[in-house]
Amino acid sequence: MIFTLLSHQWKAFWRSKNAGKSVAIQIVIGFFVLYILAIAIFIGFSLNSILQHLFPRQDEITVFCGLLFYYFAVDFVLRFMLQDLPTISVAPYLQLNISKKSIAQFLNIKSLFSVFNIFPIILFAPFIAKEVGSTYSCGTALAFIITTIGITIFNHFLLLYLKRKTILNSTWMVAFFIVVVLFAIADHFSLFSLREISVKVFLYVLHHQWTVVVPVILAVAAFFNNNNFVLKNLYIDSDTKRTKEKETIEYSWLTRFGKIGELIALEVKLIIRNKRPRSLLFLSLIFLGYGFMFFKPIYIDKNMLGMLLFGSTFITGMFVITYGQFLFAWQSSSFDGLMVGSSDIKDYIKAKFAFMNIYSTLALLISLLYGFISWKIIPVLFAGYFFNIGITPVITGYFATLHYKALDLSKSSTFNYQGISAVQYLFSVIIMLIGFLLYFPLGFFINPWAGIISVGLIGIIFYVLRDKLIGLIYKNFLKNKYKILEGFREK
Length: 491
Hints:
The structure is a single chain. By secondary structure, the protein is mainly α. The chain has two domains: 2-6 and 25-232, no CATH class; 259-489, no CATH class. The protein contains 23 helices and no strands. Helix content is 77%, strand content 0%. The protein has helices at 2-15, 19-54, 60-82, 91-94, 100-111, 115-135, 138-168, 171-188, 194-207, 213-232, 240-251, 258-273, 275-286, 291-294, 297-301, 305-324, 335-340, 345-367, 377-390, 392-400, 422-445, 448-464, 466-489.
């Protein structure tokens, strides 16, 4: 039955009207994956030399063991951002004499064909076979390889389970993000050392081969947990009633803010229900952790506030930049209906701006935790925040009126270039240039703090003048209205 379902998927791919475009995209992605795998193979066979160069006069096996948990932690986060759920059109099969168990097994087996599951073998097997095999024994090396594969499979099925839970309940995604951030903060401030834990665990595995059963059991348990979850939710109308009740409870309070509140509620539902905006939101949340990259002691000690400002603008405005550039395209599938409805496009734009401001505010509140590194980061964060609630939405709104391509919301945003043109790349460059140009005159020729204050003040001025600026965006929308509608109709 599994081979039959695979053949159906193959036929559906080639018989679709967009098969030619899909093949071209898959070929490009295939070359990219092959390139990454070639690099991984090179690293795998050179890992011994790399570790000797990076960690001189240290035992390579101990260093390797200390890095494994870091690898699997990063692997899990990257899977959440990049790995798609295995899918199949369930409706045609549920009414046939095909057991749900067979469909669930098909989805699980199909999911295993992922580049993330190949990486550990390519990266670690050569080093383990050479170093562990020669230092300990071939049996120990084999047990160690099985251990890494077991953890990889555990990561894989746990990730699938978690992503499916986030689709049914968005609080799981928030909880996952909070856990990742707290974990990174705790390790960064040495509340615990993941490296030391990793060394102890994997060195114990090397000296006690029987422990290989632990990751195998974890992998099997994660498989059955995910399989049971798929079986319980393999229905067309699964959780429909519960979802409607949940939405009524969660979003009814927004209607108290009038038409703008109702439109914000629709925006929240759009993100929760659709893969592309949902994954974009999660990616933006992950980027909040990039403060550790931008807020380095060397920049703080030397008063390099320009770098701090860039980081502040980036982490509090990433969602505004990536989401706002498709201001109208998110509703491309129903934009004709929106145009003939009772909603005023000005209210529609205001609601989008308000929604992006809500995200920027929440991002600022979370980012204030970086103030524990240095007090200097806090005023710079506020300057970046004012820039992102005042200037960035206006620029995104203007460029959105020049975007004429529809978006497929069912696909993830990662490695997805559907609906993207050169305008989007130009837009990102312009945003970075504007922030730099606002900071440069006072920041370089007078005082870095003067540059920070100027960026914040200009952001506040733009926020105060928002209604007039929205009016200009509205006029430009009317100018390009029919081009936008025509472009959105082309699927």
